[in-house]
Amino acid sequence: MNSILSSILVAVIAAAVVTTVANTCTTVYLHRGLSHRALTLRPSVAWVFRALIWLTTGIKPKEWVAVHRKHHAFTDSEGDPHSPVLLGWKRVQKGNVMLYREALADKSIIDKYARDLPDDKWDRMFFGHNKTGLVTGIIILMVVLGPWTGLLAAFIHANVYLAVNAGVNALGHHFGRRPYANQATNLQWLAFLTMGEGLHNNHHAAPSSPRLSHKRGQIDPGWWVISTLKTFRLATLRFNDVRLSRAARTGAA
Question: How far apart are the first and last CA of the chain?
Fold first, then answer.
């Protein structure tokens, strides 16, 4: 019994670490870096983020970027791939992955919203093969932790990662505070779980800014990572501070 409980505890801790890594790569690399060009990473650092997102999620960056940019182009209006205002927050929460797949079924979305991210040799060899990345990541966990503990850790990670990131799209456009005049919301507890992404109202008010915390008391863990990268000259910021959009400047509370 003790060995079973020990294995479960190890799996939970490992899943928490892997999920934190995946969320860090999602917010720093996929979201703030590639989608909005709020920061530019050194090529070697970008490659590490790219490899980690491949191993922990299997996401193809240009696909994630294309869907996210379309979301900003049609936020909570007809054409938004995952708007809870149009579809209901429960449907987006439960079906976030399917909504991404439906958006990507339109092959023109890549050319329209992610033309600046063409495939390179690394995509052709590794990163363009999402299932290979997922399987490799699971195998690594199984080798390091043991077969069953590794599989349990992978299962927990997958479910938590999908749930909290769906929450950004679903809960983050339905519940919470709206200090700026947009439909997104701020949920600090969700920001803790997603390395800052829960401060979603702030993000829609300043989409090209690398920092999602705008006021005292707001905590953006992803910004700590970005600040550290900047300190060691591993990242260059587009803006050193928050740069509100015109709509946010005129409509902020």
Answer: 55
